[in-house]
Amino acid sequence: MQSSRQKNGAIKIVTPEDRSRVIAILTTAFTMCPLLRWLYPEPERYLRHFGGFLDYYAGDPYTDRSGAYFEREDRGALLWLTDKAHRDDARMMSFLLGSVPENRRTETERLFEELGKYHPKKPHWYFTMLGIDPMHQRSGWGGLLYQYGLAILDEAKGLAFTEATSASSARLYERLGWRIVGEVQLGSSPPVFPMLRHPS
């Protein structure tokens, strides 16, 4: 983990004071995410609901100190839930069904129910969001930020789960030790790839 800090000099664990910066980074980063833009296809709907989606999907990394971001230039952010944290999936689903277009509610509910079947039954870490500002994408920052988070995971010797929302992000995760365990695609939704990473 120290080498990552030395190389970029600016990765910082998130705190409550960083909340608005991290939300801004991730809102910008996910404008082209196949899953997020399927959920919120119109720009106005996306901007209105993304912050709420983040709250329900990613929990509270700011008080849990379960996230990191590039403090310099706000290049990107990574959020996770530790094996001690638990997301309220019922509240998340209620939010989703009230915010996605009406004609996507049934598919949205079925999609997330199917994804839930891939979550490990035993305690695990859940890497929820990795986003890089489009101005800095394809420059290696995503891998560097993920290596920082995975160093924390490996120190804890934890089992981890994530969902890649594109084939390209799945390939990045595979290079970092993740394994695809399925592919979920329902109706008009894009494919989503559940992935596991076992302790090294």
From TrEMBL:
Question: What EC number(s) would the UniProt record show?
Answer: 2.3.1.-
What domain of life is recorded for the organism?
Bacteria
Among Gene3D superfamilies, the record links this protein to: 3.40.630.30
Q: Which InterPro entries match?
A: Acyl_CoA_acyltransferase, GNAT_dom, Trichothecene_AcTrans
An example molecular function term from Gene Ontology annotations: acyltransferase activity
**Is Transmembrane found in the keyword set?**
yes
Q: Does the keyword Iron-sulfur apply?
A: no
Residue intervals passing through the bilayer: 21-40
Please give the SUPFAM superfamilies that the UniProt record associates with this protein. Answer: Acyl-CoA N-acyltransferases (Nat)
Which UniProt keyword terms apply here? Answer: Acyltransferase, Membrane, Transferase, Transmembrane, Transmembrane helix
Q: Which residues form the N-acetyltransferase domain?
A: 112-178
Q: Please give the Pfam families that the UniProt record associates with this protein.
A: Acetyltransf_1
Q: Mind telling me what this protein is named?
A: GNAT family N-acetyltransferase
Q: Which organism is it from?
A: Bradyrhizobium brasilense
List the lineage, top down: Bacteria, Pseudomonadati, Pseudomonadota, Alphaproteobacteria, Hyphomicrobiales
